[in-house]
Amino acid sequence: MADLGSLLQEAATIMLTGMFVVFVFLSILIYLVQLLSKLAPADAVSIPKPMTNTESNHAGVQPDVVAAISAAVHLYRQRNA
Asked: Residue 44: what are its φ and ψ, rounded to 5°?
C-alpha cells in the first residue's frame, strides 16, 4: 500500500493544478469579454415617445364596427345574466 504522505502530496498537486487552470481560464475569459465590449458598440436604447393625442388610438375604428360590438356585448349580457 502506498504511503499516506505521498498520496496527500499527489492530491495537493492535482488540486493546485486544477485551481491554476481554472484561474487562467477565467482570467482569459474576463480579458476577452472586456476586449469584446470595447470593440463592439453598445446597443442604442430608443425610448418611445408618449402619445400626445389619446383619440389617435380610435381614429381607425369605424362607428358601425363599434355599434356592432356594442350590440353583441349587450345581447350576450342579456342572455347570460
From this structure: -80, 130
With 90 as the cut, is the pLDDT of residue 1 above it? no
Residue carrying the nine cell digits 482570467: 27
What pLDDT digit, counting tens, does each position of 6-45 carry? 999 999 999 999 999 999 999 999 999 999 988 887 776 7
C-alpha–C-alpha distance, residues 9 and 17, integer Å:
12
Count of C-beta atoms within a 10 Å radius of residue 33: 10
CA distance 60 to 25: 58
Q: What is the pTM of this model?
A: 0.47
Give the Cα-Cα-Cα angle 59, 69, 52 (nearest 5 degrees).
25
DSSP-derived 3-state class of residue 46: coil
